[in-house]
Amino acid sequence: MSAQVLPLEARADLRRSVLTHLRRSGRIPGVVYGKGREPVPVAVEEALLVKMQTGQETALVDIELPGQGRLPAVIQEIQRDPVTRKILHVDFHVVMLDEPVDVEVPVQVQGIEEVDKRGLVAQVLLRHLRIRCLPTEIPEHLRVDVSRAEEGDVIRAADVQLPDGAHLLEEADEVVVNISAAGAGAGAGETLPEEPKGPEMVRDTEGKGRRE
């Protein structure tokens, strides 16, 4: 299990005024759910959550739920204020370590400077790829090297190297990156930042996370 543990506090009062008080006191409202589990509203210390999110993010964490002990979970979604970027809500998806999960992993494009030097543009059409893998094998990102790409080159989902044991859920011919001459096809895509966000769970029917 993960070396990082996030102690959670169960919460029963779902009134908006209580949520406001939670955030003002340095805690973040959230929900815990998973296969065969009823969603449980929780709260987590903001400082602990932010600390866990700094540096190299870890997709798999241990949560500590009152009466249930430590449970392996993946952070499915973090909602942020669009202006301040402060965390407003977090979803925890309890997983089984020996059962594959479907996740969205960010694409990290490398070699963009080399492309620019040749008067070309790397147009990123897919920022994330959906894959299926064990929770312990979720990659932080998927690298795509375009340093030697030429005009007209196309990198498709099937061309992206996945970790051993992982399976691609996207259509194999989905275009991830397109290399074109500068000024050609403007607006068709955009260059991806060098540091994309970490992996996210793919929402499914089990994810009934209530935003409260």
Unreliable segments (pLDDT under 50, ≥5 consecutive)? 204-212
Mean pLDDT, all residues: 84
Radius of gyration: 20 Å
The CATH architecture designation of the largest domain is Beta Barrel
Structural class: mainly beta
What fold name stands as the CATH topology of the largest domain?
Ribosomal Protein L25, Chain P
Q: What helical percentage do the residues reach?
A: 10-25%
What is the number of strand segments?
A: 14
Strand content: 35-45%
Indicate the multimeric state: single chain
Kindly give the count of domains: 2
> What are the secondary-structure elements, in order, as H or E?
EHEEHEEEEHEEEEEEE
Alpha-carbon distance between the two ends = 28 Å
Count of discrete alpha- or pi-helical segments spanning 4 or more residues: 3
CATH H-level homologous superfamily name of the largest domain: Ribosomal Protein L25, Chain P
Q: How do the strands line up in the largest sheet?
A: 1-3-2-6-5-4
